[in-house]
């Protein structure tokens, strides 16, 4: 598998990261240690969960986060000072990153990833971390919702490259497979990430020939055992399907089988039922029906209710752009600096961050389902904690005594070098399925999902409360 190249990736950052880094450099803060936490405040798309994705790409980018002569010359043109540029010439990230496994189910207002290192190191990688994790986690979540509405034996593939936002299409294809897609139309992503390339034909193939039947015959000459014929160029039921049946029978006579037909327009429920009925009547029950055209989890769920006879879906625009909710609002906030816990205060109480170096634990209920997530300080013992509290209201708490507890974050980078992590999107997807099976059904529903609770230890609650008091009453 050939990986995407992240060589000399140091300019893939917001400009203010570098202006702050130069400030740290000249004020003697270069070697001060800091901890930043990555989390998101609100669940996207009215979903009850998010799938953590983008980690393998992030680790590779961080390992290669540096500056060559061309990058330094550009920064010199922007007014950065020679001494700071000399520092950047040898810059490498030497810190530690702690994160869940890719494919893990995560929730809002919990420290999903923590980054520890010198203040300059952890500051300048903020943008790339947010860019990679926010986008891939969002797309993986959308793909998993699509998979959740598929009937047994049905599949879907990513068809979204042509509508993706530029090169984000590469990461979207990877994330789609993590979320459950069987493959992708994106040939480059298939090569880079080891995905299954999937594709049929376009209307232009049919239009190129004077006759639709001739177009189908010419196509199956090249692909006698792997042909999917697009049957809606002129008229799905009166033209495309009869010609596809003719070609399928001709293939049978030569010892081959037509793989499928694709519908890209019209009433998918009605057309698929009619196509299935006529294919079966012709003895072609093995021919699959593929549907595409502005599909998402809601439309596929509706097609199921209408008894649509579709075997596989090509999902494009609404998946890779997350059409209805195009961003995950992940943030990266300072939690520790120079050994002291830090927090951000806001008039919006939900935006007040959690200070200190922390750990994240998952609590299971008596039936083996995810029940609560617990955020505790790094020096605490989860087995000595009886209750976890709402971060803002002390009277809201959960008793966790006697319940199974599982640590869900582990070091994935030490000393700036990646530790072994799973990179195969299909293996990550299988792990995702295992984790989602432990999420209560009410949290996975589309309409008004149950809000999964994330609580904090009493020690962390009190630390946050005291720091707020100190800042508001100096």
Descriptive overview:
- This protein has helices at 15-26, 55-63, 69-77, 82-89, 119-124, 126-149, 168-178, 187-193, 203-208, 212-222, 236-253, 268-281, 297-305, 317-320, 425-436, 441-444, 458-472, and strands at 33-40, 50-51, 96-99, 105-106, 113-118, 155-158, 228-230, 260-263, 288-292, 312-315, 330-337, 340-341, 358-364, 370-377, 387-389, 397-399, 405-407, 410-414, 417-418, 453-456.
- The protein has a domain at 144-320: Aldolase class I (TIM Barrel, Alpha-Beta Barrel), CATH 3.20.20.70.
- Helix 11 (236-253) links the parallel strand 7 and strand 8 (260-263).
- The longest helix is centred in the first third of the chain and has 24 residues, at 126-149.
- Helix 7 crosses helix 15 (425-436).
- The N and C termini lie far apart (56 Å).
- The model has no long low-confidence stretch (mean pLDDT 96).
- The protein has 17 helices and 20 strands.
- The chain has 474 residues and is α/β, with parallel strands linked by helices.
- The strands form five sheets. It has a seven-stranded antiparallel beta sheet with strand order 12-11-1-5-3-18-19. The protein has a five-stranded parallel beta sheet with strand order 6-10-9-8-7.
What is the strand and helix layout of this fold?
Blueprint: H1 15-26, E1 33-40, E2 50-51, H2 55-63, H3 69-77, H4 82-89, E3 96-99, E4 105-106, E5 113-118, H5 119-124, H6 126-149, E6 155-158, H7 168-178, H8 187-193, H9 203-208, H10 212-222, E7 228-230, H11 236-253, E8 260-263, H12 268-281, E9 288-292, H13 297-305, E10 312-315, H14 317-320, E11 330-337, E12 340-341, E13 358-364, E14 370-377, E15 387-389, E16 397-399, E17 405-407, E18 410-414, E19 417-418, H15 425-436, H16 441-444, E20 453-456, H17 458-472
Parallel strand pairs: 6-10, 7-8, 8-9, 9-10, 14-20
Antiparallel strand pairs: 1-5, 1-11, 2-4, 3-5, 3-18, 11-12, 13-14, 13-17, 15-16, 18-19
